[in-house]
Specification:
Among the domains are: about 80 residues, Cysteine Rich Protein, CATH 2.10.110; about 35 residues, no CATH class; about 120 residues, Cysteine Rich Protein. Helices cover about 15% and strands about 30% of the residues. The chain has eight helices and 32 strands. It starts with 12 loop residues before the first strand and ends with a helix. Keywords: LIM domain, Metal-binding, Nucleus, Repeat, Zinc, Zinc-finger. It is found in: Nucleus.
């Protein structure tokens, strides 16, 4: 039988736990003094981590230095000497850029770390330990400095939303924001009537907010028909009327036509689906043929109407999806516009819809623009007039033209024809010849011989 001689020395074990902010693991810092035991073979062993170790085997996981009698840090069940742990795992202070050792308190915020003594306001340098603070552009500030430099101000009362009391403040008076503006709940009021706008619809104009009624009274558009405003709470949809809905008139000297441009059913349906919401309020609308609550707003250029007010100014019939014609700030249906303004033929007084002609700034149907005497169409033909009445060339010549003394045919002047007159007689240029020798007398002297005209040479011969 063997006997075991055990010699024990004083053993002191000091353990501290702290949480690693970057890994979320528990780090055990164990401080040990000398711990030696002797067995019957004269060997030594160390008791640590609830295990027995040969003294030469209880070493730093990183550098293999013996940890017997030394302080060490346990991480992931592996022991490290203080130096290796700080070199490998310790955080660097954001302020002084030095390692935060295991004997220092490590304060962290958003993956940044500070020594306790370095956790200071970037502006006034007071300690922020156990105090509320704000962060801006990776820098930290005490509540007062943050408020003075960065805190939002209430657009109602002008006071700042203090970081120190912000969380409590939101519970009691609220921090309401709209388009980068902020209000206390008690300050979120209509700029006109001062009623609270909390949980209510409101409108904004020139950086000011208004309740629905006040916004409508001051800024809402009015119907060009009845003059009433378009109230946001009764408006169902807005339809913009395009130029393709306008019935146009065309006049280019010889042709006068009123064109009807009715939309096909598919185009109307697509256009009616293009609704936008008034005052920015949310509004969804389905097929235009389905019944929708509220009032529909019709828009054309800069003008607006209630759907029921978008009517012909003459017959008062609603325009709806039909074509219309704007004239001098009035809206006309096609029928009333044509009746009142459409171009009419001078002869029959009926509306010219296509194929018209203009003569002396007066419009005619092609079929109405005829010779006054023979009724032959003059469209595209040469013609002249007498007493403001049109005649074809033949009729005008027969009725009104001078007649050639030689050939008795009318002298019309068509084609630039020249003629010669003497006393009460007239000749075509080609017919103004000597009655004896047939020589042209145009530009020469001549002698009358009764009803005839003769050249001077023939006159001499006749006298001999």
């Amino acid at each position: 039988m063997h006997t075991v001689e055990v010699k024990k020395t004083r053993k002191v074990k000091k353990t501290t736990k702290r949480k690693e902010s970057d890994h979320g693991s528990e780090v055990v810092i164990t401080e040990m003094e000398q711990t030696n035991e002797f067995n019957d073979k004269g060997g030594e062993y160390t008791k640590a981590m609830s295990k027995d170790w040969h003294t030469t085997h209880f070493c730093c996981w990183q550098c293999d230095e013996s940890l017997t009698g030394q302080r060490y840090v346990l991480r992931d069940d592996h022991p490290y000497c203080i130096k290796c742990y700080e070199n490998v795992f310790a955080n660097t202070c954001e302020s002084c850029n030095k390692i935060i050792g295991i004997d220092s308190k490590d304060l962290s915020y958003k993956d940044k770390h500070w020594h306790e003594a370095c956790f200071l306001c970037n502006k006034c340098r007071i300690s922020l330990v156990d105090k509320q603070f704000g962060s801006k552009a990776d820098r930290i500030y005490c509540g007062n400095c943050y408020d003075m430099q960065f805190a939002s101000r209430c657009d109602g009362c002008g006071e700042i939303f203090r970081a120190g009391g912000l969380r409590r403040q939101r519970k009691t008076v609220g921090d309401l924001s709209y388009k980068d503006k902020h209000w206390h709940e008690a300050c979120f009021l209509c700029n006109k009537c001062r009623i609270s706008l909390v949980d209510k619809q409101f409108g904004s104009k020139a950086d000011r907010i208004y309740c629905g009624n006040c916004y409508d009274m001051q800024f809402a558009s009015r119907c060009d028909g009845c003059g009433e405003i378009f109230r946001a709470d009764t408006l169902a949809s807005v339809q913009t009327v395009g130029n393709d809905r306008i019935k146009k008139a065309r006049d280019n000297n010889e042709e006068i036509a009123v064109l009807s441009m009715f939309l096909p059913m598919q185009s109307r349906q697509e256009e009616n689906n293009q609704f936008r919401c008034a005052l920015g309020y949310a509004c969804k609308l389905g097929n235009a043929r389905e019944a929708t609550p509220g009032t529909k707003k019709m828009e054309y250029k800069t003008r607006q109407w209630h759907e029921k007010c978008f009517c012909c100014c003459v017959c008062k019939t609603p325009i709806g999806t039909k074509s219309f014609i704007p004239r001098e700030q009035e809206i006309y249906c096609a029928g009333c516009y044509e009746e009142k303004y459409a171009t009419r033929c001078v002869k029959c007084n009926k509306i010219i819809t296509s194929g018209g002609v203009t003569y002396k700034n007066e419009p005619w149907h092609r079929e109405c623009f005829t010779c006054t005497h023979c009724s032959t169409s003059l469209a595209g033909q040469r013609f002249t007039s007498r007493d403001d009445k049109p005649y074809c060339a033949d009729c005008f010549g027969e009725l009104f033209a001078k007649r050639c003394t030689a050939c008795t045919k009318p002298i019309t002047g068509i084609g630039g024809t020249r003629f010669i007159s003497f006393e009460d007689r007239h000749w075509h240029n080609d017919c103004f010849i000597c009655a004896l020798c047939k020589t042209s007398l145009v530009g020469r002297g001549f002698i009358t011989d009764g009803a005839d005209i003769i050249c001077p040479e023939c006159a001499k011969q006749k006298l001999i």
